[in-house]
Records
---
Amino acid sequence: MIFLTPREKEIINLLKKNPGMSQQEIADELNITRSGVSAHINNLMTSGYILGRGYILREDTYVAILGGCNMDISGSTFDNLKERDSNPGKIEYSSGGVGRNICENLARLGVNTSLLSVVGRDDAGKNILTELNRINVDSSRVLITDGITPHYLAILDETRDMYVAISDMELIKNIDKDYVEKNRKIIENAEFTIMDTNLEEETLDYVLKNLKGKFLIDGVSTKKVMKIKNMLEKIYFLKVNIYEAQALSGLETDNIDMLGEDLISKGLESLVITAGGQGSYYFEKDFKMMRKPREVKILSASGAGDAFMAGYAYGLYNDLEIEERMAAAEAAARITLMSSDSCSKDMNENNLKGEIYDY
């Protein structure tokens, strides 16, 4: 919760009437110094009440997303893939990254979002930020620094299945303790914060142990989810697939009930385990539920897990009951599965509700 001083309230009221007011005009109106106005403006920006340049006011609640942005490059062949040879085919570029994907889906669903991430001073970084600004994501706190924007390069075979991939995520190390501290109030004043485990373990540890708020975590992979193994009691909600759940629990079993109950017993407040055709399983202390999947014509599975997390967060943000939250998560995943893009352009509130109820 943000508490404004009387002077800050006066400044906000002036900016509501005229967002284009200069600091000197505000100073003249309130009969204070320009340096005094500057100090108040800086405080309002730090606390997240003013978003970005031009004094865009945040009057509603919002969700913070702390995670990775990257440029995805995929190459697919027209014929059978031949090793150690030049293969005629198609190369495609798209913005990606788990945190960025979740953020885009939430923004398309009408949720106010503030993205905390990092990009390089290159064309890839510029393109990512331009796309985010186009869908009204607050990207004013994305760190722009020297180095290459994180990239994910995938070579697909003739069936469009991934044959080999290379990821260059070195820049994400810049999302460190200092960056978190600079954005502490953005995180603590959010309704909740979503993080992905592409972040450094030290960063995840610092946020979970030192900042206040509700934290939702996307497991990402069996290796990366291990970063949070000793911090489960700090996590409000975790989304993992069955393989990530096995890795995190240490249990060699396909029994999803056993996996879920074990992770909850280790301190998690709430948990979803997704299991493809088996459905999705929700757990919290003394309560669990399972939902069977609905049939869907799959065009691409890329980004479906990110959309599931966004759909669940949409439900939480709108105070939906758990049954409705799960339905929203599954609907968002289905919309993405029916798209060739990792973030479907058809993702919006009307389509989400239609996917939930119109069957």
Note: The mean pLDDT is 91.
---
Amino acid sequence: MIGYVTLGTNDLQGNAGFYDAIAKEMGVGRMMDFDTHIAWGQWDGGAGIALTRPYDGQAASVGNGTMVAIEAKDPDQVKRLHEIALANGGTDEGAPGPRGEPDGEGRTFYAAYFRDRDGNKLNAFCMVKG
């Protein structure tokens, strides 16, 4: 089970507003706030997201093929998260919409993709019936 995901950043304070807005839509806030890292989520809740300056002092870089997925409650929240990301300095990597074919239970993967200001890739998703 994943407790949290940490992403590297070269501009902690500059990216903080991006994640503050995403966290607010998800109904959580900052649970840790230090000079070198910030974490969003809820103690004893689901998985959280943290941003940190790399411990080794080197520049943060984006992992090719690495992505953080945020589980939304419905397609409307997927759309809102995508809009919030773009309004807070993020870039579009795929507009909200269904992806792929329905699974064996008739559910379809509904998702939107975006990057934060450092280029880290995120996805907001939910499963929709029908």
Note: Residues 5 and 94 are 22 Å apart (CA to CA).
---
Amino acid sequence: MPGIKDAKCVLVLGATSGIGRALALAIHNLDSQPTVIVSGRRQERLNELAREGERIRTARVDINTTEGNLKQFVEDTVAKYPDLDAVIFSSGIQHIFDFSKPETIDLSTEFQDEISTNYISIFKLIVMFLPHFLKLSEKGRPSFIVPISSGLSIVPAATVPNYSATKAALHSLSITLRLQLSKTKVQVIEILPPLVESELHDHQGKTPALSKVWMPLKEFTDRAIEGLIRGDPNVPVGSAAQQFDQFEKGKQEAAQKFYERMLSLS
């Protein structure tokens, strides 16, 4: 089965830190020598990352921008890199919400930004990149949509309820995308990380405590790359793999049967 080793040009959204940055560098170092486009809000970090590899290119974007700007970003990227055949969606933010203190929940900014970054903008970008990928499919070329959800998409954390919900939505979307695109050469590979070493938690003040239990970033990256190279439909890592085995086995097949039933009724 084709895997990320077969990609010629990979765009990594959310590549300025953490998982996105580590995956971008690991993919750049594959023997297949793909071009890697790193993308994010902070141009200075993108420039720093570009100095790490000769085939790393930069493309700045804030995925919380307008739909028109997202569309322009996609059009510009495809025009500049016609060999683009993989997009990894690593952008994500996380906020703590306490429903026992509803007055502390910021509905106008934190809630909206979390939903937009973790799900809505990713949904829009997938829709916008698909015409290009479907054209590659017609030419017999594989391409890859790689959402990064979370083990929290399977077993939510009560301290981050909205984050868990957005990752559950992305996980569900990955299953249905895979079904609808099954007759094309567009592969959907979902990465499900456990708690991983990251800047994601810095603004929460939780990093010192979480650093005692999280998976080191290098260990996670090594395991995730193995699944990406194989082209596994799902790449759960660490505790997320245990949760996947316990709660998710058979879900894709069940969704496929339901999908086929719905198609037979239409």
Note: The chain has a mean pLDDT of 95.
